[in-house]
Amino acid sequence: MITCSTYEIIFHFHKQRLNAMYFVCSLEPTTQTWMASESCFCQNTSLILQDSTVTIKVGGIYQTYVQVTFHEQKTEAGSVTLIANENREGKTIRKLSEVQYNKETKTITMSTVIHLESGETVKLDFPKSILFSHEESQTYWGLYLLKKI
Prior knowledge:
Elements: E1 2-4, E2 6-8, E3 17-25, E4 34-36, E5 47-50, E6 53-56, E7 60-69, E8 78-84, E9 94-101, E10 107-116, E11 121-125, E12 140-148
Antiparallel strand pairs: 1-5, 2-3, 3-4, 3-12, 5-6, 6-11, 7-10, 7-12, 8-9, 8-11
Domain THD: 33-146
Family: Belongs to the tumor necrosis factor family.
GO cellular component, one term: membrane
């Protein structure tokens, strides 16, 4: 289990402490597991990453962002989906955001602002057969707490 807390998001107009995580794909090209980026140098968080799924510990309004860069060997169309509460007993599965791609698509991006409650989980889902870049600057996703509710 990886736990991460607040860190400074450098690209904001005013630096502030946020509950945030930034995920990159593992270095193993045959897997689709996610790990916290070294950019996330934190402790005691409201977000916990385990088995490529994030568990929300503090309910509130979150900003999410995703970028996936594909290898040119794609043979099919499909979608990349941000899902809440997959395989969570007593929780309703929610599709938070989704982007369709085709054989010609090189990179997809998506971003959304969503309400997440304590105990909910978030996961990035796409077909296991798709080959994508494992470069940290090309394939990543993350979320950060904008406001506690």
